[in-house]
Design brief:
The chain is of the alpha/beta class. It is 55% helix and 12% strand. The longest helix has 29 residues.
Length: 208
């Protein structure tokens, strides 16, 4: 294997607090590549994926300035599995291409630390199989739903989005490490530091 870093999948469920864990990992010096950020980049005006989305779903998914109205598009696709699959067939290859380019850049630089691929539907899309390790962030169901509704304000939409994701219990079965974010930030930070240290040991063992 040419790369000298450890590639770690970071996933969870809606409102389990993956962003909190991601922030802590970055503060510890890890590199985090965020699938949501790349997903926004590939649908910027002028990008081929945006043109394909407009052809597929119509100009009503655009805002007045020509940018993608992500909320309107989500409303169009999330309730219809076939439409969601068509959207993923457009965006996922573009995201993967950008992700691989970032990894190639880190390889070229000779980076030797931890690289996290932060993706909410990594397991559903099969991307976890390409990771060296997998970290799953969880929260109990009551906390998860309360956070999601507090953030998004639409209980029906939250339930629909949870239903579209693999149950957390199934994701945990595939994890190398689990971070429970049901409690306060201090507890989450302590557990994240433990997992970060364990992954550094994994990297050192692989080098040895």
């Amino acid at each position: 294997m040419s790369r000298r870093f450890l590639l770690v999948g970071l996933t969870g469920g809606i409102a389990t607090g993956k962003s909190t864990v991601s922030d802590i990992l970055q503060s510890l010096g890890a590199i985090v590549l965020d699938a949501d950020v790349l997903a926004r980049e590939v649908v910027e005006p002028g990008q081929p994926a945006l043109a394909t989305i407009v052809r597929e779903f119509g100009r009503e998914v655009l805002e007045a300035d020509g940018r993608l109205d992500r909320k309107r598009l989500a409303a169009v696709v999330f309730a219809h599995p076939e439409r969601r699959r068509r959207l993923e067939a457009i965006t996922h290859p573009a995201i993967r291409e950008r992700f691989q380019a970032r990894l190639a850049g880190l390889e070229a630089e000779g980076y030797e630390g931890l690289v996290f691929w932060d993706a909410p539907v990594m397991i559903e899309a099969g991307g976890h199989r390409a990771m060296d390790r997998l970290v799953v962030v969880v929260a109990d169901e009551t906390t998860q739903r309360a956070r999601a509704i507090s953030r998004d304000g639409d209980a029906a939409d939250v339930e629909r989005r949870i239903a579209n994701q693999l149950p957390l219990a199934e994701k945990v079965k595939l994890a190398d490490y689990v971070i429970d974010n049901s409690g306060d930030r201090a507890a989450t930070e302590a557990r994240t530091r433990e997992v970060h240290a364990a992954l550094l040991r994994d990297l050192a063992a692989r080098r040895a």
